[in-house]
Specification:
With about 325 residues, the protein is mainly α. About 55% of the residues lie in helices and about 5% in strands.
C-alpha cells in the first residue's frame, strides 16, 4: 500500500486482467470507455483517494438513462474496484454499498419479433445471394449478430451437416444445420460464392471491401435493414433471433432445453424472454370464444339504419 497507484495506471492493469480472464475485445472496449470517462472526471487521482461519493457522482451522469445503462456503469466500477481490493491496492471497495438497479423480470422485457409471414416476406424481398445467405442464417439458426458476421466457409461441414459459430467469450459452438438451410448453403457452394474456406459465410456487399483483422458485424445489421425496408416491415437482427426461437418452439413444443442450447443462453430465464410473446399469444387466444349474446353484424346493421333515420335523430336529441 506504500506505492501510490494512479487511476489511469490502475485502469491499464485492470484491462490487462480482463484480457487474461478471456473477456472479448468488445467487452474490454466497453469497460475501457466507461473507466476512462471516470478517469477524465478525476484526473491524476490515486485510487486510494476515491470513495463512494466520487463513484456515485460519476454514475449520476446516467441518472436519466435506461436501467441497463446504469447497471453497466455500476458493474464496471464494481469490477474495477473489487479487482483493486482483492490485490490489496485499496483498503476498501468504495462500490461495496452501491447497488445495481433491479433487473426486470423476463415477462416485463420488450422483445421485438416477427410473424411467420414477416419472415417469408423477408426471404421474398432478398435480391442477392449475399442477402439470402444473411437472412437464412439468422432465420434458421438464430445466431447473435457478431457470430453470424464472423462465420466463415470453413465453419460449415457439409459431410456432417453442421456449422460452427464463435459465440460470446470467444468460445465455439457447433450446431446441426436445418435441411432447408443446408440446401441454400450447398447451392451457394455449387455456384462458387466462396473462393476459399477463409471467406465469410455472409459475403461483403462489395467484393472489393477492405479486409480487416476482425470483421465488423455492421454488414449483417445493414443487410437486414435494407431487406426489411424493401419488404415494407419493421425488422432487425435481434427480431429474427426471436422469430427463430418462437418458430422452433411452435415446431417442437416443450423442447426448451434444446432451444436454450441453440440460443447459446447460460440461463433458462433468458430463453424465456424470447418465448414470452408466444406464451402470451396462446394464453390470450381463449378470449375468442367470449359470448355476450350480441348478434354481431345484425346489431350494426340495425343501428346503422336507426342512425340514418331523421325522426330517430330528433328524438335522441330531444332526450
Amino acid at each position: 500500500m506504500a506505492d501510490v497507484l494512479l487511476l489511469t495506471k490502475a485502469i491499464d492493469d485492470y484491462t490487462g486482467e480482463l484480457a487474461r480472464r478471456g473477456r472479448s475485445k468488445e467487452t474490454r472496449r466497453a469497460y475501457e470507455r466507461i473507466l476512462f470517462l471516470f478517469a477524465d472526471r478525476y484526473p491524476e487521482r490515486a485510487v486510494e483517494e476515491l470513495g463512494e461519493e466520487e463513484c456515485t457522482r460519476f454514475l449520476d451522469r446516467w441518472v436519466d438513462a435506461s436501467p441497463a445503462t446504469i447497471a453497466l456503469g455500476v458493474s464496471v466500477l464494481n469490477g474495477f474496484f473489487s479487482y483493486l481490493w482483492e490485490r490489496k491496492r485499496i483498503r476498501e471497495n468504495p462500490m461495496a454499498r452501491v447497488r445495481r438497479p433491479p433487473r426486470k423480470r423476463p415477462e416485463d422485457l420488450e422483445v421485438v419479433t416477427l410473424t411467420g409471414r414477416d419472415v417469408e416476406q423477408l426471404f421474398e424481398a432478398t435480391e442477392t445471394v449475399q442477402e439470402l445467405l444473411c437472412v437464412a442464417l439468422l432465420a434458421y439458426l438464430g445466431p447473435r449478430r457478431k457470430a453470424a458476421a464472423l462465420a466463415r466457409r470453413r465453419d460449415v461441414d457439409f459431410e456432417r451437416q453442421t456449422i460452427r459459430f464463435r459465440e460470446k467469450g470467444g468460445k465455439f459452438v457447433e450446431k446441426p444445420l436445418p435441411a432447408q438451410l443446408l440446401e441454400i448453403l450447398l447451392g451457394a457452394e455449387r455456384f462458387g460464392v466462396w473462393a476459399s474456406g477463409e471467406d465469410y459465410l455472409i459475403p461483403n456487399r462489395r467484393p472489393e471491401a477492405v479486409r480487416r483483422p476482425e470483421r465488423s458485424d455492421k454488414v449483417v445489421w445493414e443487410t437486414v435493414k435494407r431487406v426489411a425496408e424493401r419488404a415494407g416491415i419493421r425488422a432487425h437482427v435481434h427480431a429474427l433471433r426471436a422469430a427463430f426461437a418462437v418458430r422452433y418452439l411452435e415446431t417442437h413444443p416443450g423442447d426448451r432445453e434444446a432451444l436454450q442450447m441453440l440460443m447459446g443462453h447460460t440461463r433458462a430465464d433468458t430463453t424465456e424472454v424470447y418465448l414470452r410473446k408466444l406464451n402470451r399469444a396462446k394464453a390470450m387466444e381463449r378470449v375468442r370464444d367470449l359470448d355476450w349474446g350480441v348478434p354481431g353484424l345484425r346489431s350494426v346493421e340495425e343501428r346503422r339504419i336507426r342512425d340514418s333515420n331523421p325522426c330517430y335523430r330528433r328524438e335522441r336529441a330531444a332526450s
